[in-house]
Amino acid sequence: MGDLLKPDLGLTVWTIVTFLCLVGILKAFAWGPLLKSVEAREARLKADREGAEKARAEAERIQKELEAQMAGVQAKSRDLLAAATKDGEALRAKLKAEAESDAAAIKAKTTLELAAEKDKLVGDLRKEVASLSVLAAEKLLHKSVDAGVQKSVLDGFFKDLDSTKKAGSN
Known about the structure:
Distance between the termini: 160 Å
Helix content: over 70%
Oligomer: single chain
């Protein structure tokens, strides 16, 4: 066991030569492929990292675009709602004005029709009263009154009655 710990020049030289040969063989055959695979892995990791950063940046850009579009859609929907409300109010006001106008027209037409009907009834009543008055006068006087005379007398009576009525209402 003592001989193993003593350095021997021949063994040391052969160990160094063997080590250098092994390093040369490894450099020639294994070192290049090992470095290439390490460099390829490093490049792949770098590309993956850059791809992930690009994807993250793209996702952030898309998210911002979507938020902007969403804000635009919300603003547009608020505008459409406001416009619809405004149009509804305008339509309601228009329909109300038309209804009021129609009601006023119907009221005016009805008033005119009632006035015309009243005038017609007053005229019919006057004729009936005149006819009854003439009939009563004939019975009292026992004679017939001429139709022309009857008409002129009654017209004068009604004119006097109308002027008396107008003077009484003033």
